[in-house]
Amino acid sequence: MANLAAVLFDMDGTLVDSEIIWEEFLRSECAKRGVLIDQQTREKMRGASRDFTANLMVELGTVKDLAGGYEFYAIVAKQVAQRIAEAPPFEPGAQELVHALHEAGIKIAIVSASPRGVIEPVADALGVVDLVVSGEDSELGKPWPDPYELALHKFGVGRASAVVLEDSINGVAAARGGGIAAIQISRQRAFATDPGILVVPAIAAVDQPLIEAWLDSCRRRAVVG
User: Fold this and answer.
1) Do residues 181 and 139 share a domain?
2) 219 and 151, same structural domain?
3) Which residues are listed as membrane-spanning (predicted)?
4) Phi and psi at residue 182, to the nearest 5°
5) In 3D, which of 18, 22, 79, 61 has the Cα closest to residue 45?
6) Are residue 146 and residue 209 in the same domain, yes or no?
């Protein structure tokens, strides 16, 4: 059986059903500035970093410059944080999975493109999170592997002893770019030819034996590390 030392969770769309909250406030703030976001643009933003979002707002003409893009992101993030803090909208099965892994002695991290102020209410509600890596903690965010590499470094855990749970294309790209086995919570595979991605329809379908079996499979096929 694989020596599973850590599970690194994305937050938005993986642990909590917050993507709809982000979309609500993003669309609202863009509309105030005379810009409408289509679904294709919104998909680009799923799991994206603050830098990516700020640059995209400049590209769309929502703001005049990058400084305005960061200000825009801060406004949206504050609204999202307030909504989530009221009652974190956990995905069915998410809390049970996190607690089961913790009880098994496996380290738990939340690695998210969201600001720390958005993540902390979720981590506090779970009560067993060992590490939070926010969008403010690494120079390059998802889809770059830096946030996941930072989490592994802080844990002192190797790539071949960890698994990432993600929902977005940006997040899966970050995990695989770092050589980490990934389980994608989705009904559509992010990268059809990548042998290090297991797709499941919901986090409720994931448990410790499945995670360990997938890590074993990835290690045998030398697609991690």
Assistant:
1) yes
2) yes
3) none
4) -125, 140
5) 22
6) yes
Is residue 31 domain-resident? yes
Reply yes or no on whether the pLDDT at 188 is more than 60.
yes
Alpha-carbon span 11 to 133, nearest angstrom: 11
Out of 28, 53, 86, pick the residue that ends a domain. 86
- Going across the sheet that includes 131-133, the strands are 131-133, 107-111, 6-9, 162-166, 181-185, 197-200
Q: Which token pair is 103?
A: 């009880």
Q: Is residue 169 part of a domain?
A: yes
Do residues 211 and 5 touch, judged by C-beta distance below 8 A?
Answer: no
Token digits of residue 83: 């909504």
The helices-and-strands tally (H runs, E runs) of the chain is: 9, 6
pLDDT digits (tens, 9 = 90+) for 61-110: 999 999 999 999 999 989 999 999 899 999 999 999 999 999 999 999 99
Indicate the pTM of the whole model.
0.85
How far is 185 from 174, CA to CA, in rounded Å? 15
- CATH number of the structural domain spanning residue 146: 3.40.50.1000
Are residue 105 and residue 163 in the same domain, yes or no?
A: yes
* In-domain check, residue 1: no
